[in-house]
Amino acid sequence: MNLLTTEMRRALHRRAVRVMIAIALVGCGFAGIVAYLASRGKTIARLRLDEGNPAVMTNWWIADDHVGVLSVGMFFLFLGGFFAGATVAGAEWRAGTITTVLTWEPRRLRLHSARLTSGAVLAFVISFGLQVIFLASLVPAVVFNGTAEGVDGSFWLNLAVVVARTSVITAAAAILAMSLATAARNTAFAVIAMFAWIVVIEGLIRTLKPSLSSWLWGETVTTVMSWSRLDTVEIARGPLMSAVTLAAYLAVIIGGAAISFQRRDIAAGS
Amino acid sequence: MTNVIEIEGLRKSYRRRGGTTVAVDGLDLTVPEGGVFGFLGPNGSGKTTTIRCVLGLALPTKGVIRLFGESVAEGLREAVQRTGAIVETPALFPTMTARENLRLLAAVDRIGPGRVDEVLAIVGLADRAGDLVKHYSLGMKQRLGLAAALLKDPDLLMLDEPANGLDPAGMREVRQLLRQLADDGRTVFVSSHVLAEIESTCDRVAILAKGRLVTHGTVEEVISTAGHRASVLVKVDDLDLGMWALRDAHFVAERVNDELRVDVAPERAGDVTRVLAAAGQWVTELRPDRFSLEDVFLELTSTADVSEAQLEQVVA
Known about the structure:
The complex is a heterodimer of chains A (270) and B (316).
Chain A (H helix, E strand, L loop, with lengths): L1 H11 L2 H25 L4 H6 L21 H25 L1 H6 L5 H38 L7 H32 L2 H22 L8 H10 L12 H25 L7
Chain B lengths: L2 E14 L2 E14 L2 E6 L6 H8 L7 E6 L2 E2 L4 H6 L1 E4 L11 H11 L4 H10 L15 H13 L5 E5 L7 H16 L3 E6 L2 H5 L4 E6 L2 E7 H7 L6 E4 L3 H10 L4 E4 L2 E4 L6 H10 L6 E4 L4 H11 L13
Parallel strand pairs in B: 3-8, 3-9, 6-7, 7-8
Antiparallel strand pairs in B: 1-2, 1-4, 4-5, 9-10, 11-13, 11-14, 12-13
């Protein structure tokens, strides 16, 4: 437990993490102001006609269509989780602090597990908190200009599930990045490798071999995020299968990084 | 006397493009409990690699290492709890204050904040404990690393070049601190290539060259392995007059700084004083011209067998 809390405090001390949280908070505030101004002076009927206007509370998440105002932030949270994870793990290698920590806790797998767990917990909590703040920033638009009509228990339940699911995906992104950065002992590698894979390799596969699309990270993550089968993919997979696929991919990468961390020497400048 | 560190047949090689680099080759070393143990060698002689292997940061290619009697391969956690270490440059988080850095480390082993302030005071950083580490000079970082190593109140301190970046006053403080820690019953294992840092502080030394141990023992033993020069150093009021008097008496004499070196066995020092007295030069100081640890170090490390134990041995 000590190790876990220590690793969390370490991660929260990263300037990049703090900056990303600050940017997200500013974004939330900005979104609230825009939502308020955009809905001011409009009738409820007019607001209902605007597709996805956040002043109509039921637009926050439309369970039947698997879309809503929350969809906007999902992609950014995934990216944020990934960058934060990469920088937290990569910085330890760049600064050489991994050597110092290992002279206190030499059981490498234990240390690695604590770091990944702390990264996942932090990413989940921060993602959850930011989504709540984002939704809270829309409340003035609803209260003063819009309506909460149609909001019932099932709406809140669906909303909570979506927020939790997005937070789990953010945590997965953080773990993925931490594993890549640990294996390569470098922040930039994790970011560049992921970017190259998602944009270049998966782009090529989508064009040259569309039947494999359902196996790609992009499609898999999108399916899990929206929790609906994609219409754009030739052989689309259901959300549950996509979630299992995502978990399997993660397990392989986490396992590989753990083996690398356990076996390789901690050398100067590594 | 029990041994704190036991190393048997340690070999560490790294695969590199085009071959293998041997950093440590067949090292046998024992470090007894208590005192300051100097681990000497020129840059690249394998000191840091050995320390990394002892601390489990690098896996030996061959050989056995025991720390407090526990095999490093199996009982490292228990041994590390009794060990404080600095490996190369102390690495701490630059965007945290010194106190925050130490508190984070302390939390791993449930060490209270009181001990953090205590070690900061020991290394003379109490006044700057609230400053961000990125604003620290190299010497201050070195002190902070030392504070981190002391946090656990360890039985063994392993310090890799602890005086790096320190000014002369700082070096003296560190030397005094190491001596004090050893006098308190701890074992201080300190690696260095700065001989002045070691000679006055260490009880025992081991000299490493090109990945191999070339000599070890107490400082006196190591110096005596080099034997004595057949010369004496003499101080008189008028060095020039003294030198000519000695030369007239067929001694080989030369001026070295503010004294004369006379090539004569120390047992014949009486002949020297007689000649100088006859010339009206009263001897104010006379001592055998001993080898220093630095002389021994330079001689041993420059003549170590290069053919078999090359640091950068490339095995095709």
